[in-house]
Amino acid sequence: MEEKTVRMEDIISLAKRRGFVFQASEIYGGLAGFWDYGPLGVELVNKLKAEWWKAVVTESDNIFGVDGAIIQNPKLWEASGHVAGFTDPMVEDVVTHKRYRADHLAGTDSTDLGELKELLKGKKSPDGNDLSEPRYFNMMMQTWVGAVQDDSAVAYLRPETAGSIFTNYENVRETMRAKLPFGIAQIGKAFRNEISPRDFIFRVRELEQMEIQYFIRPQSQDAAYEQWREFAWDFLTTRLGIAPENLKWHEHEENERAHYAAAAHDIYFKFPQGFKELWGTHNRTDFDLSSHQKTSGKDLSYFDDAAKERFIPYVIESSVGVGRMLLAVLADAYREEEINGDKRVVLKLKPELAPYRFAVSPLLKNKPELVEKARGVYLMLKKQYGNVTWDDNGNIGKRYRRQDEIGTPNCVVIDFQTLEDDTVTVRDRDSTEQKRVAIKNISA
Ligand code: GAP
C-alpha cells in the first residue's frame, strides 16, 4: 500500500464530486467566502455537532445549551469591544486595489501595525505592485433592522456566538439555579467580513461555531483553562479519531491575542496548506461580564454563599469552527492507496462519523430474487441504523471504490448463497477483507 500527502485540490475535488461541499450560488459564479453543504456534508456536519453537544451538554451536569438570535441589539457588540476592535490588519495593492491580510503577506502571526510596516518594507503584492501602508479593517457584517436604512437602524450579524451567551448569563443562572462553576454552550452561525477568504472552507465569511463559556471563580482560572485545553485535545483525538501527530499546540503571543483574551492557546491541525488554527481556548477573564454590566447597567455579579463574597465571574472559553473541524476530519481521513495494482481513494473516517454506516447491494441488479432479498436487508439495517445507503450501480468493484471514497465502513452484498442460507458478505473498508455473516448477525 502506498500513501501520499493530502493536497487541498484532492479534498476539494472529492468534496464536490461526492456531495460534501458545493460553492454557494455556483451557477452564478459563486461568492467568495460562502459555501453550501451537500447531502453527505450535512450528514457529517450534523454528526460533528451532535458529538460535540453530547460531550459538552448532554453528558455534563453543569453546562446548559442556548440558541441565540444572530442579530442582537448593537449595544452588545459595542460592549464586547467588537465594533471598535474586531479588526484584522490589511494592505491594498495600489494598482489593482485588491486587499490582503497584512500579517499573511508578512508571514507573521503578529497583528501589530508597527511591526507589520517594518516586515512589509519593500514587499510587493501577489500581482507585483506596491502596497499601501497596513491599517486595520473591521470585520463586522452590517445590516439594517426595520424599514429605514439610516445609522439608527444599523445592526450586526454576530461575529461570534459568544455574545448572546454573555447576555443570557443571568437568565441561565437563574432559570437553571446554576452555581459556579457552570457553563453555557451554543452552536450557531457567525459572520465575518474576512479580507481574504481562502483555502476552501478554512477561512470563510459565513461560519458556524461551537462555543462554551465556562463561568468560574477568578482563583480557578488556571485549572479551568487546563481543563478546557485538555477537553479540546481529547475530543479531537478520541471522539473524532484524529491522529495526534496531525495536531499541535500554539500559544498566542501578546500581539496576536484577541482584544478580550488574557491568554489563548490554539490547537493547530496539519491542514493541506500547513499547520493552522483549528480550535481556540481563551481566558476572557471578567472582561465581557464587566463590560456588559457597565454598558447595560444590569448587575451581573455573583454572590458566593460559602465565601460570602460578591464578584464578577471569570470566563474560560472553548471555541471551534464546524467547517474547519469538517475539513480537518476529511484531511485526516483521506488516503490514496494502491491495492494489488488497483488505485483507490478511501476516507478512513471513524465509523460513527461516516455519512453512511452501511451500503447494501444485490450482487446483480437484474435478478429480481436478489434485489428483493437485498431490499429486505437494506430496510432492516435502515430501521436499526438510519444512515444506510442502497448501491446497485456498476460492478461490485466499482461500488466498493465508490463507498471507500465516502468512508462507508461496511458494504453488505446479497448473492445467490444468501437465498440458500441467509448469509451475506460484509466487506471492511480499511482491510478490504470480506466475511460471510448471517443476516441476523450484521452489526456496526
Ligand atoms: N469566541 C471566540 C472566537 O470567535 P476565534 O479564534 O475568532 O475566537 C474561534 O474563532 C474558532 O472559529 C476558530 O478557532 C476557528 O475554528 C473558527 N473560525 C474563526 N474564523 C473563521 C473563519 N473566517 N472561517 C472559518 N472558521 C473560522
CATH architecture descriptor of the largest domain: 2-Layer Sandwich
Briefly, what CATH class of the largest domain? Alpha Beta
Overall pLDDT metric: 96
Q: Structural class of the secondary elements? A: alpha+beta
Overall spatial form: globular
Radius of gyration: 25 Å
Overall number of domains: 2
Q: How are the strands ordered across the major sheet? A: 3-9-10-16-13-12-11
**What's the name of the CATH homologous superfamily of the largest domain?**
Bira Bifunctional Protein, Domain 2
Number-wise, the strands total: 23
Bound molecules: glycyl-adenosine-5'-phosphate
Query: Uncertain spans, ≥5 residues at pLDDT below 50?
Result: none
Largest sheet: 7 strands, mixed
Classify the beta-strand content into a percent band. 25-35%
How far apart are the first and last residues' alpha carbons, in Å?
A: 26 Å
Count of helical regions = 14
As a percent range, the share of helical residues equals 25-40%
CATH topology of the largest domain: BirA Bifunctional Protein, domain 2
How would you explain this protein's 3D organization?
With 444 residues, the chain is of the alpha+beta class. The protein folds into two domains: 8-74 and 155-331, BirA Bifunctional Protein, domain 2; 356-441, 3-Layer(aba) Sandwich (Rossmann fold), CATH 3.40.50.800. The chain has 14 helices and 23 strands. It has helices spanning 8-17, 39-58, 75-79, 82-85, 102-106, 113-120, 162-167, 169-175, 221-239, 287-296, 322-333, 368-385, 396-405, 416-421, and strands at residues 21-23, 35-37, 63-65, 87-92, 99-101, 135-138, 141-144, 154-157, 182-191, 206-216, 247-251, 263-271, 274-285, 302-304, 309-311, 314-321, 334-339, 342-347, 358-362, 388-390, 410-414, 423-428, 434-438. The strands form seven sheets. The protein has a seven-stranded mixed beta sheet, sandwiched between helices. A five-stranded mixed beta sheet has the order 20-19-21-22-23, sandwiched between helices. Strands 5-4-6 form a three-stranded antiparallel beta sheet. Helix 2 crosses helix 11. The longest helix has 20 residues, at 39-58. It is globular, with a radius of gyration of 25 Å. The two termini are 26 Å apart. The model has no long low-confidence stretch (mean pLDDT 96). It binds glycyl-adenosine-5'-phosphate.
